[in-house]
Amino acid sequence: MIISLPIPNEAHVLVKAGEKVDFSSKIFEIPVKEFININIAQKLNVPPEKIFTYLKKFVGEEIKKNDLLAYKKGFLGDKKVYSEYNGVLKEINHQIGEIIIEVDDKKTQEKKETNSPLVGEIEEIEKGVLKIKIKKGKTIEIKEKNNYNFGAGVFILERIDQILAENVEKKLIVADEIKSVYQTKCEALGALGFLTLKKLPNPTNLPTFQFKNIDDINKIKKEIFSYCFIEKNSSKIIFYD
User: Fold this and answer.
1) Residue 228: beta bridge partners?
2) In 3-state terms, what secondary structure has residue 182?
3) If we measure between CA atoms, which residue out of 113, 111, 91 comes closest to residue 101?
4) pLDDT, tens digit (0-9, with 9 covering 90-100), for 152-194
5) HSE-up of 52 (CA within 13 Å, CB side)?
6) What torsion do the CA atoms of 60, 61, 62, 65 make, to the nearest 10 degrees?
7) Contact between residue 13 and residue 26 where contact means Cβ atoms under 8 Å apart
8) What is the mean pLDDT of residues 212-234?
9) Where are the alpha helices (DSSP H) in 17-168?
10) Which domains does the chain have, with CATH numbers?
11) What's the pLDDT at 6?
């Protein structure tokens, strides 16, 4: 089974075809965007809501270092604001009188490495897509769409005495339902998320999903898969080994 993983914009791929990956493998290196706030109202001594009158750049416009950003003519002398950065004007805030520049400095730009959300083998790298081969699995539907790629080990919780660190840590907990005290215990032991039939009793910052079809949980319990993956913006979860 092949899963196509989109390569993020501006990402540098850190893996090669034929390489095996797991959740600890670094697969992408992505530039971290830096934003600079410049308070034009303070620098020109003008009301915040009036800064548009003095600006020389507009949202979306490219900015070079030493470009004139804003200008105010006065009897006692002109006031000018120059850019100290290369970048793009991302936002103008008329409430506080500031602009926000997304800085573009590739020499000093920090990089963020992204771990693989899958355990498998790199099958192929195409333009914009990383293809990862996994062993055969089962795809089921969930009620929610996920906001980002999620991958984890899987633990089927059927008895409360199974809630141990070695079972729960770094796992998606799959259960019919989880009582409040046991949800708290799973989170304290390092669970990465929950997939249940019934909603969790407590609010949580962890990813939570619900089965769409009641019969699917019995299929997962029967086959006992090791891992799971949910693609960004998808409402389907893949269980696999």
Assistant:
1) 152, 239
2) helix
3) 91
4) 999 999 999 999 999 999 999 999 999 999 999 999 999 999 9
5) 7
6) -120
7) no
8) 92
9) 40-44, 165-168
10) 1-29+112-134 (no CATH), 34-103 (2.40.50), 136-241 (3.50.30.10)
11) 92
For residue 193, give both structure tokens. 């998320």
Angle value at C-alpha 222, between 159 and 117, nearest 5 degrees = 85
Per the DSSP assignment, residues forming a β-bridge with 130 are 5, 125
The single residue listed with the structure tokens 């996920």 is 146
Placement of tokens 């141990």 in the chain: 164
Contact, 65 vs 86, CB < 8 A? yes
For 112, residues 6+ apart whose C-beta sits below 8 A from its C-beta are 29, 30, 31, 32
Query: b vs e for 205-227, b when ≥16 Cβ sit within 10 Å of the residue's Cβ?
Result: eebbbebeeeebbeebeeeebeb
Tokens standing for residue 61: 């416009």
